[in-house]
Amino acid sequence: MARVKEDRVTTQLFTVEHIRIGSTRSFGDVRAALESRVQALALDRVVPFMKKGDMAGARAELERQASPAGLTIVYTVEHGVALSVEQGSPRPAVAYGIGNFLVAISITKHDLAAGLYAPIRVVLYGADDGTAVIEYDRPSSTFALFGDTAIDVVAKQLDMTLKNMLMDIAN
Questions:
Q1: Is the pLDDT of residue 5 over 80?
Q2: Per-residue pLDDT tens for 48-64?
Q3: Arithmetic mean of pLDDT over the chain
Q4: CATH-assigned architecture of domain 3-170
């Protein structure tokens, strides 16, 4: 990881491990499995606790939403629909920001710039043969950029949680 500094801009190269999981299942089946296993984050159910100063209540609600997978869908981007602009019809492709708010807090409290990689971006798309493909960058490889052992420990746990869940959904 080489650092180059010019005036107020620092550039740093680092290696990212990219993961591709092929499935024998269709895009629709894998998408349905993912979205039934991992619920969408509902911050509107967390904010009232925070407004009252009830951080224990906010934490409990975040934990509830992440159950049982330990993750939530923070955002969804319909890439396949967007391709209609270029191709005239949609394709099966969606990107998710998948993570756990409490895990993100445990990482960004050490380095706010780590928020660049939280949540983890996961892309699900349909292959030409009708099967589904899931791709993402291994969390521990992206968070390694920060060189912080406390972040590394959390990121390695996130590696296992995400990979196990995605492998299960793909099968």
A1: no
A2: 999 999 999 999 999 99
A3: 91
A4: 2-Layer Sandwich (3.30)
Distance CA 95, CA 75 (A): 8
Inter-CA distances, 156 with 45, 57, 63, 153, Å: 29, 27, 19, 5
Cα dihedral 33→38→43→47 (10° resolution): 140
What CA–CA distance (Å, rounded) separates 93 from 74?
A: 17
Residue 120 exposed, middle or buried by CB count within 10 Å (0-12, 13-18, 19+): buried
Q: How many whole angstroms separate alpha carbon 131 and alpha carbon 21?
A: 11
3-state secondary structure 83-122: CHHHHCCCCCEEEEEEECHHHHHHHHCCCHHHHHHCCEEE
